[in-house]
Specification:
Layout: E1 2-5, E2 11-14, H1 18-26, H2 38-44, H3 55-69, E3 71-72, H4 84-90, E4 92-93, H5 95-108, E5 112-118, E6 138-145, E7 148-152, E8 172-175, E9 183-186, E10 194-203, E11 209-217, H6 219-231, H7 234-241, E12 248-256, E13 265-273, E14 276-278, E15 281-284, E16 307-308, E17 313-322, E18 327-331, E19 336-339, E20 345-354, E21 357-366, E22 370-371, H8 376-391, E23 395-399
Parallel strand pairs: 3-4, 10-17
Antiparallel strand pairs: 1-2, 5-6, 5-8, 6-7, 8-9, 10-11, 11-13, 12-13, 14-15, 15-23, 16-22, 17-21, 18-23, 19-20, 20-21
Helix pairs in contact: 2-5, 3-5, 4-5
């Protein structure tokens, strides 16, 4: 086998063309032959999984069944130490054990599936100029239903059907089509990754603001939160909401749809927001709920390589403040609108005052997860502005 040496001295084997790689994988004992276990899964899985006539519903049922039955051991594998039958029987295995089990199960249901080799984030992207094997770290599943393509990785217990874990979002992978030949396929992230906050507070007779907060998360943002809820106690999550302990107190924290991955994750809690007195005036910091972006990640002056957030993000706040008969408005921050070039993102905040009520809308959108180095200054300004809005833009009040 031939090889090439990269600039750091690393040696990478490669064959003469992708046909050689396809042949090697097709006959590989640990990968190619594992794809022939369709009949095994047809026998061991509940027959009800295959009875659904709608292909998408059938695929989801199989996906969630494998996700529930098998646990990932944290190891990545591509072309060795893979045995789907043994892994299914012990209910755990490496990344390819589990995803190829899913592939065989979907194939047993008569669905159009193929293995897709990828390199996870944190590793170099696969070299496209030369056909290689060692550049890949794991396999996922490409499912096609009609004209729709679904990328599936069932190793994460909190990842919904059709959404890849963040670690998989590394531009492209190689689909191993053993009938027509393998090909490169872009890895497309979920487009609906939203964090929405609706907060309502009202001043009491002591001048302290009390109210309720509802947070809704979808897509990869809900996966992030569900992963936290799987490993951290509800009490620690509650305390984490009190980002400014001297200002915010959170009680009655509750979660909806923690296990139902097809539904948005909802967090509900009561909140007490204290103000800050400065002379005769009172300062109320309106973004008292912990934001999705807590700081500006771009602090150095220049950047020479691309920026990759992994997936598009929408972060919306709707905050309603009732001053009752206890305060009057002296000053609110200025409304702002900032757009990134090429419609890659937008940041806007609007303060609407009507009598003793203040309504605030903050919209944060990154439409494109990848940015060229030339966009660095624009992103730096974007996050600087967001940081000022969230942390340094108080509403100035005066007590009656």
């Amino acid at each position: 086998m031939e090889q090439y040496v990269d600039f750091s001295g690393g040696k990478h084997p490669y064959t003469r063309d992708w046909k050689d790689v396809d042949t090697e994988f097709r006959h590989n004992l640990d990968l190619g032959r594992q794809l022939k276990n369709t009949n095994y899964f047809k026998k061991v899985l509940p027959s009800t999984l295959f009875e659904e006539s709608d292909d998408l519903k059938k695929a989801k049922a199989i996906y969630y069944y494998i996700q529930d039955q098998m646990a990932w051991n944290g190891k990545f594998r591509v072309s060795h130490e893979i045995d789907v039958k043994e892994a299914y029987e012990r209910k755990s295995g490496n990344s390819s054990d589990i995803n190829l089990s899913l592939l065989c199960a979907l194939d047993a249901g008569g669905l159009d599936v193929k293995p897709m080799l990828i390199s996870t984030r944190g590793f170099a992207m696969p070299v496209t100029q030369f056909p290689t094997i060692n550049d890949f770290t794991t396999s996922i599943v490409l499912l096609e239903i009609g004209s729709e393509k679904y990328f599936l990785d069932v190793t994460d217990k909190n990842t919904p059907f059709g959404i890849l874990p963040y670690r998989d979002l590394n531009f492209q992978g190689r689909v191993m089509d053993f009938k027509k030949g393998s090909y490169w396929e872009p890895i497309l992230p979920s487009l609906k990754n939203m964090h929405y906050i609706n907060a309502k507070i009202k001043a009491n007779e002591n001048g302290i603001f009390e109210g309720q907060v509802n947070e809704v998360s979808t897509g990869l943002i809900s996966t992030e939160m569900r992963n936290k809820l799987s490993t951290i106690s509800m009490e620690r999550i509650r305390r984490s909401k009190e980002t400014k302990s001297e200002i915010v107190e959170v009680t009655a924290y509750d979660v909806e749809n923690k296990k139902d991955l097809e539904k948005p994750l909802k967090e509900n809690y009561n909140i007490i927001v204290n103000t800050e007195d400065v002379g005769s005036k009172t300062l109320l910091f309106p973004f008292f709920v912990k934001p999705y972006f807590t700081e500006n990640p771009f602090v150095v002056s220049t950047r020479a390589f691309p920026i990759d957030f992994g997936f598009p993000i929408t972060n919306n706040y709707l905050i309603s403040i009732d001053l009752a008969d206890h305060y009057e408005v002296v000053e609110v921050p200025a409304n702002k609108l900032l757009k990134l070039p090429m419609n890659d993102g937008e940041l806007s905040v609007v303060f609407d005052v009507s009598g003793t009520k203040i309504n605030i809308r903050l919209n944060v959108r990154l439409n494109n997860p990848q940015f060229a180095p030339e966009a660095y200054k624009s992103l730096q300004e974007y996050f600087d502005t967001l940081n000022v809005i969230q942390n340094d833009s108080p509403i100035v009040l005066k007590k009656f």
